[in-house]
Amino acid sequence: MIDRYDWPGGSEALWRFGPAAGPVVLLLLPPFEEANRTRTFAVGLLRALAARDIGAMLPDLPGQGDSLLPTEAVTLADWRSAVAALAAATDRPVITAAIRAGALLDQDAAVAGRWHLAPQSGARLLRELTRIGIDRRADIAEVGGNRLSTTLLDELETATPVTMQPLRTVRLGTDPGPADLRLDAAPLWRRSEPGDDPALANVLADDLAAWSRACAGW
Amino acid sequence: MIAQGSASTEETVRAVLRDVLGLSDERAAAFDDSTLLFGALPELDSMAVAGVLTEMEDRLGILIEDDDIDGDTMETFGSLVRFASAKAPA
Fold first, then answer.
1. Each residue of A144-180: pLDDT tens digit?
2. What is the ipTM of this complex?
3. Chain B residue with minimal CA distance to A190?
4. Per residue in A107-144, pLDDT tens?
5. CA-CA distances (angstroms) from residue A60 to A40, B19, B29?
6. Which H or E run includes A86?
């Protein structure tokens, strides 16, 4: 079901999945190119969660997807405020499920728990963006086909994934970072042509459903 | 310095190419020293090159400056493995 949510800077689209009661997973895609590479996979994951009787929400972030806000007007503070507003407006226990740099966005949200898949720091995200090509002008930088505010770039430089508990971190076997669960799979977010991995989505849905129930006591 | 990649670096580079370019296991397994990459693999466009370099950094724990890369670095699988081996701690 397509819905909308309000945040202090406007209103954005929201896709709802699964049952209307019990804990609800708020999925945060990584910004920019990786959102396109992981969206199909993420929707498969949320459908698999629904099959396990866990509801989910997939929001457009301000300045991304179908948002009316120009990308160059958005800041990291806006994204965090939008995620916090959506969590606050949800009358159910919320568990954020963040993919990659999506893990930079849930720090201000009051949630029952967090689940991060291959979390990425803002500095690493910036490094990837600049490798694709950066063209810094006055207040706007063009990076890999996106026009971004220098405020956003400055914020990303120091942003790190939230470490507030309860937090569960899942990483791929090729990723040396600390993890609660490690799975052998290919990183879909790197694939130059968007792909999918329904088998991985099913394994992750089991993990995320159990984590959501544990966090919500449900 | 020995210009041969260690087996693990070679396998890491092979896996990075497979994962970023979406190649089958069979195709990636067939790569050898002289397999042509940039200009020969249609999947390896400039965006994919950026993904390959960044994923190599993450998996090998190395830093690659753009100045380190020249036209020969990605010419063959062998040249890319030698480049990665020279960067990676022994």
1. 677 899 999 999 999 999 999 999 999 999 888 899 9
2. 0.80
3. B20
4. 999 999 999 999 999 999 988 888 877 766 667 888 76
5. 14, 27, 39
6. helix A76-88
CATH code given to domain B7-87: 1.10.1200.10
CB B50 within 8 A of CB A128: yes
Hey, are the CB atoms on B19 and A195 less than 8 Å from each other? no
**3-state SS, residue A168:** strand
Range B5-12 contact pairs with CB under 8 angstroms and sequence separation of 24 or more: B5/B81, B5/B82, B5/B84, B5/B85, B6/B85, B6/B88, B6/B90, B9/B60, B9/B81, B9/B84, B9/B85, B9/B88, B10/B81, B10/B85, B12/A174, B12/B56, B12/B59, B12/B60, B12/B84
Q: Which amino acid is at B11?
A: E
Is A165's Cβ below 8 Å from some Cβ in B?
no
| Six token digits for residue A7 | 């945040």
Domains and CATH numbers, chain A: 2-121+163-216 (3.40.50.1820)
Distance in angstroms (rounded) separating the CA atoms of residues B55 and A145? 21
The type of residue at A108 is D
For chain A, the distance separating the N- and C-terminal CA atoms, rounded to the nearest angstrom, is 24
Range list of β-strands (E), chain A: 2-7, 10-17, 24-28, 55-59, 94-99, 113-117, 134-136, 140-143, 146-149, 167-172, 181-183
The verdict on a CB contact (< 8 Å) between A186 and B45 is: no
> Coil, strand, or helix at residue A15?
strand
Q: Decide if A85 contacts A5 (C-beta within 8 A).
A: yes
